[in-house]
């Protein structure tokens, strides 16, 4: 979802620029998020977890270290202490929805593989073999299916993928973040 966050941030900043025309780097100095360092640590843990899982999957020690779902309580804490900001409410709900889906499904996000994927069969095999740290394939036993990755973003979107309701709330929070924080500092 990193690509979507960067893309949506870019679009948000373009919208702000065309609406206000006086966007400068100084507008970013007044952004205040309590506990932002925890979010940075959570991002490092997530990236490190994926790296360890992909490169050291045979080691029990590194399997323990690759528990990326441990970032969710940290993100929920930061969103809770900043809940007075509109976008943090969206972050909180998105994080909570994704965490529920992951926690009730062996700590992996189940994915509904749509035929819109050019390589749907290869993706199914990849997920069935447990080669993805964060995702698994959706089955009949999947719990809370409505919170799982079930919404396929088809072409012309360049990166065909499946997202969850929680992801929609998170991406909405990103958009609102830029609109509120940067616009308020102009």
What does the model show?
It contains 7 helices and 4 strands, in the order H-H-H-H-H-E-H-E-E-E-H. With 186 residues, it is mainly alpha-helical. The chain has one domain (2-33, 86-184). The two termini are 29 Å apart. The protein has a two-stranded parallel sheet with strand order 1-2. Strands 3-4 form a two-stranded antiparallel sheet.
Search tags:
186 residues; mainly alpha; two-stranded antiparallel ribbon; 4 strands; 55% helix; globular
Topology:
Layout: H1 2-20, H2 36-55, H3 60-65, H4 71-81, H5 86-103, E1 109-111, H6 120-128, E2 135-137, E3 151-153, E4 161-163, H7 165-184
Parallel strand pairs: 1-2
Antiparallel strand pairs: 3-4
Helix pairs in contact: 1-7, 2-4, 4-5, 5-7
Q: What can be said about the biggest beta sheet?
A: 2 strands, parallel
Helix segment tally: 7
Oligomer: single chain
What is the chain-wise order of helices and strands? Answer: HHHHHEHEEEH
Q: What ranges have pLDDT less than 50 throughout 5 or more consecutive residues?
A: none
* Straight-line distance between termini: 29 Å
- Domain module count: 1
Q: What is the residue-averaged pLDDT?
A: 84
Physical arrangement of strands within the biggest beta sheet: 1-2
| Structural class by helix and strand composition | mainly alpha
């Amino acid at each position: 979802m990193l690509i979507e966050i960067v893309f949506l941030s870019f679009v948000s900043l373009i919208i702000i620029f065309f609406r206000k025309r006086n966007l400068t780097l100084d507008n970013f100095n007044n952004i205040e998020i309590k506990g932002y360092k925890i979010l940075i640590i959570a991002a490092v843990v997530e990236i490190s977890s994926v790296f360890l899982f992909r490169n050291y999957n045979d080691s029990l020690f590194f399997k323990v270290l690759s528990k990326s779902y441990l970032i969710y309580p940290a993100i929920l804490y930061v969103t809770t202490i900043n809940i007075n900001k509109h976008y943090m409410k969206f972050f909180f709900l998105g994080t909570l929805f994704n965490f529920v889906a992951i926690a009730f499904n062996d700590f992996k996000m189940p994915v509904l593989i749509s035929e819109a994927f050019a390589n749907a069969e290869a993706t199914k095999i990849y997920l069935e073999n447990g080669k993805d740290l964060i995702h698994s394939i959706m089955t009949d036993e999947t719990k809370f299916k409505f919170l799982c990755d079930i919404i396929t973003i088809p072409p012309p979107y360049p990166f065909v993928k499946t997202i969850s309701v929680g992801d929609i709330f998170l991406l909405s929070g990103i958009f609102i973040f830029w609109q509120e924080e940067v616009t308020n500092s102009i």
